[in-house]
């Protein structure tokens, strides 16, 4: 399933602005509310649908990140990818997003379908917690204080150029397979300058 317009509008939980209702937006809204009201994230720390743009063969490409949490200085601390399907099959893509994200690598990455969740250590690519459903599920996502503590304990080492290019290729493969064959350009970030 890919993200398409449902033809309606809704009030964004984070910004209070009126935004387009899409097939994923209700989940994005629920995750933002969960992070703020149950995990202690300051509302102002979260941004939704943040573009991640990188180059493949000299051409801009990319995807949107569903939620990113930033500290007071603007450094990204946590990245959340909403996935429609088996959460485990989105882990590697989520790690690549966290490694390539501007200001990163982002230390903690989460792949979730809003019920189950995989919490990932970006540096190692390891799954810290994989909870499918029930009383746990997305409750495995760390609190704001836990995320800040993890960030303080994790050195941010920029990717060497060769590794960065590898991660870009991995993410491009996910984009091409999961988005390109599914809905062409509608799920992708348009190139800089706004042209599709």
Task: Describe what this molecule looks like in 3D.
- The protein has helices at residues 25-37, 91-100, 144-153, 161-183, and strands at residues 5-11, 18-22, 46-56, 59-70, 76-82, 108-112, 117-121, 127-131.
- The longest helix has 23 residues, at 161-183.
- Helix 2 (91-100) crosses helix 4.
- Helices cover 29% and strands 29% of the residues.
- The chain has a single domain (45-183), classed as Alpha-Beta Complex (tt1808, chain A), CATH 3.90.1570.
- Mean pLDDT is 82; it is low at 178-188 and 191-196.
- The protein is α+β, with helices and mostly antiparallel strands.
- It has a 6-stranded mixed beta sheet, with helices on both faces. A two-stranded antiparallel sheet has the order 1-2.
- It has 4 helices and 8 strands.
- The protein is globular.
- First and last CA, distance: 21 Å
- By CATH, the topology is tt1808, chain A
- Give the overall form: globular
Give a quick account of the main beta sheet: strands, pairing sense, barrel closure: 6 strands, mixed
Number of structural domains: 1
CATH class: Alpha Beta
> Radius of gyration in whole Å, from Cα?
16 Å
Low-confidence stretches: 178-188, 191-196
**What integer is the average pLDDT?**
82
| Structural classification | alpha+beta
Query: How are helices and strands ordered from N to C?
Result: EEHEEEHEEEHH
Q: Provide the CATH architecture.
A: Alpha-Beta Complex
> What share of residues are in beta strands?
25-35%
Number of helices: 4
